[in-house]
Amino acid sequence: MDHDLPPGQRALTQFPRFGLSQFASRFPKQTEHRGLKISGAVASELLIADVFAGLERIEQVSDFHCVTTWSRQGLRWSGVRFADFHRTIVVPKLRPDDAAITLILRAQDGARTTLLLEDALQPDVLLVDRLDDAPLGIEHGAPLRLIAPRQYGYKSVKHLSSIEYCVDASGFRPSAFRFMDHPRARVALEERGRGFPGWFLRFLYRPLVGPTVRRFARAMAERRGAQSSA
Ligand SMILES: Nc1nc2c(c(=O)[nH]1)N[C@H]1C(S)=C(S)[C@@H](COP(=O)(O)O)O[C@H]1N2
Ligand SMILES: [Mo]
After folding, report:
1. Extended strands (E) in 82-177
2. I need a surface site. Which of 12, 47, 58, 204 has the fewest CB within 10 A?
3. Nearest residue CA, atom 19 of ligand 1?
4. Could you tell me the distance, in angstroms and rounded to a whole number, from the CA of residue 145 to the centre of ligand 1?
5. Does 192 contact ligand 1 (Cβ within 6 A)?
6. pLDDT value at position 133?
7. What is the pLDDT of residues 153-188, one digit of tens each?
């Protein structure tokens, strides 16, 4: 099915737990409560206890593209549209500054990235708590994850804990090296990183896929082992 894939991507037959190696052994402390902090250029900071309350739940099948060149096709997510959350909850309650065009997404494991509000408002960007008809597991981002299918995977923050509406994100430090965090990361345009062409980064990243998948799987197995003997 590789012919359906964006430039430079290869399909995997499974959906691995993945990320920057420094996050392999970091896990969310809170796995049940799906609360989300909203902060930044807003009238007041707010902790939303249940992001899903009162919003239309939708199911969506989409492909997932990691910047290191692996893709997983046909994932079935369930959640709410970020656009609905933004327009129904954030705008009326918190009145974000019109100039806040960037979101900083932060996760319980310390991961963080930015997403343009314009990209986040696409109808296929979801806040999810279910995957393939089951509650989202720790591997894939419990208790709450954002997915942005048109962006490379590093914008789809797992264990999402806060969203900061930001007027000026120039001082933001991403969790990866700066060249690895493209502000938009659009898969169709192969915006893998900044300063280097996308096709070049394919060859830099591809050798990391196997070792990273194994490292993340090992850390997960160790966590399960530690929990079952505790
Ligand atoms: N909190 C958090 N979110 C994260 C990551 C991470 O390490 N921690 N890794 C990112 C990267 S690089 C990818 S490809 C996807 C992997 O998602 P998966 O583990 O569900 O396959 O999550 C993204 N979101
Ligand atoms: Mo990734």
Report:
1. 102-107, 112-116, 126-131, 134-135, 145-147, 160-166
2. 47
3. 17
4. 10
5. no
6. 97
7. 999 999 999 999 999 999 999 998 999 999 999 999
Q: Which domain, by its residues, includes 116?
A: 2-171+190-213
Q: Does residue 226 belong to any structural domain of this protein? A: no
Instruction: Please report the pLDDT score of residue 228 as a whole number.
Output: 86
Domain count, the chain: 1
Exposure b/e, 173-191, CB count within 10 A at least 16 = b: ebbbeeebbbbbbbbeebb
Predicted confidence at residue 4, as pLDDT, reads: 86
Residue 108 lies in a domain: yes
Query: Which residue CA neighbors atom 1 of ligand 1 most closely?
Result: 158
Confidence (pLDDT) at 3: 59
Give the CATH number, domain containing residue 128.
3.90.420.10
Q: How far is the CA of 68 from the centre of ligand 2 (A)?
A: 6
For the four alpha carbons of 6, 144, 107 and 230, in that order, the dihedral sign comes to negative
